[in-house]
């Protein structure tokens, strides 16, 4: 994927925004950086971005601020203090437009002469006509002369006024043009050095701004360093992702600005030189309005530390970092090496584009771009009296410098940083809209006519196909179907969902469906691929299309085969105004909402959509959408201490108070957070070493099938040496309890049910999409299948044979059995198998799994023989729906294809291209089944005998179950059900589209032959509600009275009690050696499981998304 061109503050690193990496070779020998990058293998996303950053330096790029083509340059050379700056006041005015001034004066003079002439002509004529009147007629020549002289007085006065006006207007016009020349001097702000008639941004003067420096000098010592925690977190991420293996953790534990301020060496205004390119497609009036609402500036900055001695106090005057490197083997041992990093010099240039608005603070969106990597010089000193100053040993100082450069390179033109000044000034960091603009829903139906890949097996079809979804330029698998072994015409019937980021559309990504052949001993082979334009899907949004598309060859060789799939893009829906509320937190009781103590700070809404999100809950008619979960920070994170280090004495406190809090120091946890959605791990942050106040600002966005029944579990763990990472605490969020008054909730939650305590800040946001999934596709992917009974109705000729059979009910991961003794013949000729207790079969990857009911007749000589097989695909079940479902009963010589390829409950094999004749229907089977969503007690054996990740999930379930939170899993809250009934009449009037038009399913009869080219809530359970508390206190006497002398029961009671204590690291697990022994055992089992997995077929599944 191409590198991001624009970044936002507080934007977490993720798959779409990868962490920049500092190559170690460039740290050891920076002169070979370019050569080493050129020799690397192309196609790696992060390496390509490194090359992009390297090419940006000393090359002409497009300035995102002005639109000009500019040349970036690193600030390697420090400014010469002797260089004289340019001052616009020393420049001459540009010549006024004297020709226009002359035309103006001549025009005024001509008009006044005309008017004076007219006045001198008309006034005597008026006097003459007046003299002819009988009452005014003069009686003598003297009187006539006096009358004539009097008639000249008005025009004379008028002429003097005109002369004054001519003088005033000429003088005013002269002054206006003179001051306009001064204004033009300011507008131009430079010299036309290339004589092209215009002054470009590079030709403008750089002026000193000492008034700004005086302002910075006063503000610098009082700036709160906590404002820059997010930038320090970003620096930690880059350093953590770039360190060698023997450094397993990096932490910036302290930061200060010092007392010596940074200086603004020059500042200049910039014109909008390329607005036509920036505002392409906008009409002239709108373009003029937008251009008039922006201010562009270029600011050059520099810092140099004051000469200082060797004392700590003198070095504290400069900006500084306290970094801690943890050396050793991860999980085994580590050594903390604190390093004092003093910033001795910085020099660089940035350009700023500020959007002006009429409301305070009058500045909204601000774009900032660097005109090259700033020059940074550091002094690195280990915090030890026995080690020398390492600033002359370039390895460590180069690494820190390169990490800073890697962070700064994300904002070098043409890249930029976007700041929302309204949001920053208000202090609001809450996300009110998802980054994803919509979602792609892909139904993968089947593939036909595939090429035989394995030549070793000539007797039968030899290919083990599976399908992955990825973006064409990225290449990383985002979804994978199950592997169907030995089949050239596989029928998958699986659904995939991919959120679409705007950047994905901007860089022209295509959706790629890749068909692979799985191999056990070698790399998988690509059998072909299909690419679909995402832009075309967005143009035809909310309309799925079912298509047949021929496979394209990855190696330009002819590859047979076609793939059938349904693809559609679904956009986000605006909040339903009919559900608008006051936006109060549902955790506040109704009678206390008006209490001033519960007055909550309102989030800043920048537009009507954000306002609606904060005051409108999701509409239950549209249950599917995009869920955003973000972990901001934890405050007061500590590990529980039971008792004191030394034995207590009479009169002393049993435990120390938790009043003395410390943010850093020995014994604090190294925490990281994991996000689970519907019992599936989807995201993990990086480790924040040794701190009581970790700042994560990390999160993820995922497609959610049904928000009404979904839950989010945030688990905080402590990374430890020589023991499994314990759970410090967890937060269980039932979304239907959260989204009562709003679609976005940000709140502090207490960490519970772990070995630590603290308060974690979490934001949850849901935006529905215009897609309606069938009820069977709204469920969990993890759950338990409960089989109450099995009724078989075979043909008459098979009744006696099947009545003697035992049943084996199996999924891909687990199985259960029903013996012959549980079968009974019914009056209608059917045969029923039912046990006293229902069979519980744990299921993972439910939407790619099937329940296979095998009828086996026992044979003492040859063993059990399969007489018949019934298959129920779990994607056809609805969560928590208790019903009987009828499937076909098949008989065949080879059941492998029936086990792996999808068959609907009615037994329609029309999707099968071959082997239909080998399947013989001999009856039906009625299965009384229920799918319970989420992890249950039935998963214990499967998860405890599996990988390390599975064991962690089971541990988390065990804690949640002990806290009584499992009852909420997969159930709708009462408030949602009441809202559905209360607001049903409103939906019909508001619904923007009909339900049928948003269905994601396409009828097979509507399939199109693709003619395109293939490439073309509140956690209310506190400790006193814990059932474990009741078991260990309220029922102690009952346990003592119940066969207290039975050694087996006493051992079970002791084991359960120790297990409950072990969850909090009490009892046997209170000792470090006991936890270390468990860690060794689990690592041995995990290694064995990893080795065993090397010999199994596995699809190219996406990894868990991580921060680094």
TrEMBL record:
Compositional bias annotation for Polar residues: 816-829, 988-1002
Q: Quote the Pfam families the UniProt record gives.
A: C2, C2_Mug190_3rd, SMP_MUG190-like
**Residue ranges under compositional bias (Basic and acidic residues)?**
28-38, 45-54, 646-664, 965-986, 1012-1037
Q: Which UniProt keywords apply?
A: Endoplasmic reticulum, Lipid transport, Lipid-binding, Membrane, Phosphoprotein, Repeat, Transmembrane, Transmembrane helix, Transport
Is Phosphoprotein one of the keywords? yes
- The chain positions of domain C2 read 420-549, 608-749
What GO cellular component term, any one, is given? endoplasmic reticulum membrane
Designated name of the protein: C2 domain-containing protein
